[in-house]
Write a structure and sequence with these properties.
13 helices, single chain, 7-stranded mixed β-sheet, elongated, two-stranded antiparallel ribbon, alpha/beta, 337 residues, Rossmann fold, binds S-adenosylmethionine, disordered N terminus, 2 domains
């Protein structure tokens, strides 16, 4: 059905979203075929997958169920909604914004325009944090506690008798904070962001996943968010995925990225403006033996090591790779005394 109208797709039929009589609404197979073609023409490499996700969303179903029912005819209201979503995606709006959700650490998270969509590589930050707190060597990504922890950081962080206190700077949707809170049932987490909208979304995600009572959200400009709220004894971990794209390369990124808030991406001239500020302030907020974990761009490890070396507060840092084998997280431990 959509295919029949594709030659004049955006201008007329899809553009006007004129409601079709119920009996003329296409079935799943037609929607998948025509929708895929439309998105391919828009240059979207994941066209088929995206269309399956859109249909599953509209039909309140799973991708697999959708595929297994090719002859299912869409109702008028379903077809209308499908077309509306398809057109948004055709304009290269990120799938996560169109659907309003993105999975991170196997947790469905709400996302909305104005808030960065969590990326799979940021799970490395969660993985490394858990490895440190559980004193286990980092394993390939897994979602349950390590069964037999063994030391991995030489002289690892001094065990604390208290439940860990973690600071997540630049929390965005709260992806890292919520994942850590879910994995560490006793941990207390402070999550900050400069964006009011991000804090609202992050709080909603914490509520959705039942951890809101252990996550404190603070809005403010980097360290200033902590004014009057910093734990007196410091925190055990500081984690952050700050903006780290060099300003000059932002315009060269995929069309989808241009929909995301510039403030969430722009790391200044060399991409390291936030890393500099975080490293400068971290010793004051970390307890002795605590660790700072910073997400980095794949080519920023040496530069961030260099920034860490400008202070005597930290031991020699370590770098963790993401699942693609790229440098992704720098870990620096504050000297124990
Ligand atoms: C790269 S995003 C990371 C979001 C989230 N932690 C994640 O991994 O999906 C960076 C976040 O930093 C926030 N941010 C930008 N400038 C900031 C500032 N000066 N102080 C605090 N947060 C800031 C943005 O609003 C955005 O949510």
């Amino acid at each position: 059905m959509i295919r029949a109208h594709l030659p004049r797709v955006s201008g007329t039929f899809l553009g006007s979203l004129a409601p079709l009589p119920e009996r003329l609404c296409p079935n799943v197979e037609d929607c998948l075929g025509s929708g895929t073609l439309l998105l391919e023409r828009a240059g979207i490499e994941t066209a088929r997958l995206d269309v399956e996700c859109l249909l599953a969303h509209v039909l309140a179903s799973t991708r697999w169920q959708v595929i297994l029912e090719p002859r299912r005819r869409l109702r008028q209201v379903e077809f209308g909604r499908y077309l509306a979503l398809l057109l948004r995606r055709e304009r290269r709006e990120p799938l996560a914004y169109v659907l309003g959700t993105r999975e991170f650490w196997s947790l469905p998270l709400a996302v909305s325009s104005g808030v960065l969509i969590p990326r799979p590589e940021t799970e490395t930050l969660v993985e490394a944090s858990l490895a440190i707190l559980r004193r286990a060597p980092p394993q390939p990504l897994r979602r349950s506690p390590a069964p037999t922890p063994t030391p991995w950081v030489p002289g690892g962080p001094a065990p604390s008798p208290q439940p860990p206190v973690i600071l997540d700077l630049c929390t965005g949707t709260g992806a890292v904070a919520v994942a850590l809170a879910r994995e560490l049932p006793a941990a207390r987490i402070i999550a900050t962001d400069i964006s009011r909208r991000a804090i609202r979304v992050a709080r909603a995600n914490a509520e959705r996943h039942g951890v809101a009572d252990r996550v404190t959200f603070l809005r403010g400009d980097l360290w200033r968010a902590l004014d009057g709220h910093a734990p007196a004894d410091g925190v055990d971990l500081i984690v952050s995925n700050p903006p780290y794209i060099p300003s000059g390369t932002l315009a060269t990124l995929m069309p989808e990225v241009q929909w995301e808030p510039r403030r969430a991406l722009d790391g200044g001239r060399d991409g390291l403006q936030f890393h500099r500020e975080i490293i400068a302030g971290a010793p004051q907020h970390l307890r002795p033996g605590g660790c700072l974990l910073l997400e980095i761009g794949a080519d920023q490890a040496a530069a961030v090591r260099g920034l860490l070396a400008t202070t005597t507060a930290f031991e020699v840092p370590r770098v963790f790779q993401d699942l693609a084998g790229r440098d992704r997280v720098v870990v620096a431990r504050r000297h124990p005394s």
